């Protein structure tokens, strides 16, 4: 009789186990530098930029739509789509020194900007990251957020 115990299957609390080479840095597989301009943006800058943009959207929706919850999301989505698609940066991104770029260095464009915005507004895809600090919305849009 074969007995399977917890050690054989692991625990879901540990998450997936993988190893990263010692000389690896986020963005190395993408051809990005380890630090400085053009390197992958740290998660704290991304989060603060998102909070700044959300707060700005809240204030705009407060004045224009009496702070309705869906209006806040709509204002956020519109400003994110327009600014990221055309300039590659939102106001929050600019304040915290980061920008969204394709791998060739150009702004994402409307297709990638739309896809990123939809996935970002769904929240969960943006919380799933890989070793290169790219959320699912970045992977799907074929973009990366880098330091300016």
List keywords for this structure.
two-stranded antiparallel ribbon; 148 residues; single chain
Structure description:
With 148 residues, the protein is mainly alpha-helical. It has one domain. It contains seven helices and two strands; from the N terminus they run ααααβαααβ. It has a two-stranded antiparallel ribbon with strand order 1-2. Helix 2 packs across helix 3 and helix 3 runs antiparallel to helix 5. It is globular, with a radius of gyration of 18 Å.
Major beta sheet, specifics?
Answer: 2 strands, antiparallel
- Percent of residues in beta strands: 5-15%
Estimated structural class: mainly alpha
Number of DSSP helices? 7
- What kind of oligomer do you see? single chain
Distance from N terminus to C terminus (CA atoms, Å) equals: 61 Å
Average pLDDT over all residues: 89
Query: Uncertain runs with pLDDT below 50, 5 residues or more?
Result: none
Number of strands: 2
Give, in order, the helices and strands: HHHHEHHHE
Order of strands in the sheet with the most strands? Answer: 1-2
User: What characteristic shape results from the CA principal axes?
Assistant: globular
Whole-number count of domains: 1
Radius of gyration: 18 Å
Helix content: 40-55%
Transmembrane segments: 47-66, 113-131
Protein name: RDD family protein
Domain RDD: 64-140
Membrane topology: Multi-pass membrane protein
